[in-house]
Design goal:
The protein has 401 residues and is of the alpha/beta class. The protein has 17 helices and eleven strands. α2 crosses α16 and α14 runs antiparallel to α16.
Length: 401
C-alpha cells in the first residue's frame, strides 16, 4: 500500500495556480494554497486519510468525506472544480485526473442481463419516496433544457421533453419506444400530446410500478404502457417502432455492450424511422477512477461522442443532428442540489449521514464536471436508412410558440 505524508500533500497542493483554499490539518496547523481569498476550507481530521491516497486518491478522499474524516466549509463543487482546473492527481495516462472520481466509469467487460438489472436496482430502486423529495413534479431524472437560467426546474424538464419529441417529428398513430423510460413522463407526454402509442421499458421495479400507476391515474390505458424489460429481450421479440428515444440510459450499457445496444435499436426501428439518443459523453477516452462506480452507478461507462458515432455508423445509421446541451446539465444539477439540501434532514432520517454526504458529493461533483467541461451531454438524431418525414431545416424544433 502506498502512503502519502504531509509533505507530499503540501507539495501536491502547492501546484494550485487557479483558485485558492485553506487546509486545516489534524494537528491544528493551517496552510493556504493558491492566491487570493479561500474559496473553501478543508479540515483533514485524521492522518490515516493519507495512508491509501497513493493507491486510489479519488476513492480514498471520497470515502473520507463520506465518513466524516474530512469536513468542508464551502461548496463541494468548488473543490472538484478547482481540482479539475489545476489537474491535480493527473498521470501520464489521463488528463483531468480528479474528474475521474465524478465520471467514475470503467471500461468493464460484458455483463449478463441479470447483472445489468442488479446495477440499475442499486441506484434507481433506492425508493420513489427518496427521488420524489428532490426531483421536479414530472419525476424526470435527466438533463433539463433551459431557455433561460431563470426557468424553474419543472419548466426546464418539460421543455426538454418538448425539445426531444419535436426532434422525432412524431405523427398521430406513430409507435414510440422509450428505452430506459424512468418514471414514464416522456412516454406519457408523447401519448397525450402527439397521439402516439408509446411503450416505455425499464429495469427498475420501482420506476415500473410508479409508471403503470400513473398510466391508470391519467387515463392513458391503450395509449401508453410500460414493461419491466431489457432492450435485448424486446429486440428478440421482433417488434418494430416508428420512433425510438433513449434518455440517460446509454451510460448504463457498458463499453462492451455499446455495439449490441446500437444493433438492437436498428433491429427495433422501422425502415425510415428516427431514433433520438440522449447521453452524457466524455471528451476523453481512457480508464478512470471508481468512486461513482462503487457508490452511485455500478459498472457504468461514459463513452466519447466519437466512440458512439462510430458504433452508429457501423450499424449503417444515418446521422442527422448532434447537439451538445452540456451546460444545461450543470443548471439541472444545481437545481437538484438545492432541492436535495432542503430535504437533507429527511434523507438523513431515511438513510444516514454517510448517505447524505455521498449524494451531496455526487450531485455537486457532477455539477463541477459540467462546469469545467470535463463532461458533456449530446443528443444524437439518427435514421434507419432514408428518413421518413424529416424536414429540410430545424426550424420546427427551435421555433418558440
Amino acid at each position: 500500500m502506498g502512503v502519502f505524508n504531509k509533505q507530499m500533500v503540501h507539495a501536491l497542493f502547492s501546484r494550485v495556480k487557479d483558485g485558492s483554499f485553506t487546509i486545516t490539518y489534524w494537528d491544528g496547523t493551517k496552510h493556504h494554497y493558491g492566491d487570493g481569498d479561500s474559496l473553501f476550507n478543508i479540515h483533514l481530521k485524521d492522518p490515516k486519510i493519507l495512508q491509501c491516497m497513493a493507491d486510489d486518491a479519488e476513492l480514498s478522499l471520497g470515502e473520507a468525506y463520506m465518513d466524516g474524516a474530512i469536513d468542508l466549509e464551502g461548496d463541494v463543487s468548488e473543490v472538484i472544480a478547482l481540482a479539475i482546473r489545476n489537474h491535480l492527481w493527473d498521470t501520464p495516462e489521463t488528463t483531468n485526473g480528479v474528474s475521474k472520481m465524478i465520471r467514475g466509469v470503467i471500461h468493464g467487460g460484458r455483463r449478463s442481463i441479470k447483472q445489468q438489472k442488479a446495477d440499475i436496482v442499486h441506484h434507481y430502486d433506492l425508493g420513489n419516496d427518496f427521488f420524489r423529495l428532490w426531483l421536479d413534479d414530472t419525476m424526470t431524472y435527466s438533463c433539463a433544457y433551459f431557455r433561460s437560467p431563470q426557468d424553474t426546474l419543472e419548466q426546464a424538464q418539460r421543455q426538454k421533453m418538448d425539445h426531444t419529441l419535436h426532434k422525432l417529428r412524431l405523427q398521430p398513430g406513430n409507435t414510440l419506444l422509450d428505452i430506459g423510460s424512468g418514471w414514464g413522463e416522456l412516454a406519457m407526454q408523447a401519448a397525450e400530446t402527439y397521439s402516439v402509442s408509446a411503450l416505455g421499458i425499464t429495469l427498475s421495479e420501482e420506476q415500473y410500478k410508479a409508471s403503470c400507476k400513473a398510466v391508470s391515474e391519467r387515463g392513458l390505458e391503450g395509449k401508453a404502457s410500460f414493461r419491466s424489460e431489457h432492450y435485448d429481450i424486446l429486440a428478440n421479440e421482433g417488434v418494430n417502432f416508428d420512433k425510438i428515444v433513449s434518455i440517460g440510459m446509454i451510460e448504463h450499457v457498458g463499453k462492451a455492450h455499446l455495439s449490441e445496444f446500437c444493433q438492437c435499436v436498428k433491429t427495433m426501428l422501422k425502415p425510415g424511422g428516427l431514433a433520438l439518443l440522449h447521453l452524457i459523453t466524455s471528451p476523453i477516452e481512457g480508464p478512470t477512477g471508481g468512486w461513482v462506480n462503487k457508490y452511485i452507478f455500478p459498472n457504468g461507462y461514459i463513452p466519447t461522442l466519437t466512440e458512439l458515432l462510430n458504433h452508429l455508423h457501423a450499424q449503417d445509421f444515418r446521422i442527422w443532428d448532434v447537439e451538445n446541451i452540456g451546460p444545461h446539465y450543470r443548471l439541472t444539477l444545481d437545481h437538484w442540489s438545492e432541492r436535495f439540501e432542503k430535504c437533507a434532514e429527511t434523507v438523513r432520517k431515511m438513510f444516514d449521514e454517510r448517505f447524505v454526504r455521498m449524494w451531496r458529493l455526487y450531485l455537486r461533483g457532477a455539477s463541477a464536471s459540467f462546469r469545467e467541461d470535463s463532461l458533456e451531454v449530446h443528443q444524437i438524431l439518427v435514421s434507419k436508412g432514408k428518413p421518413v418525414g424529416l424536414p429540410l431545416t430545424r426550424e420546427d424544433v427551435y421555433h418558440l410558440a
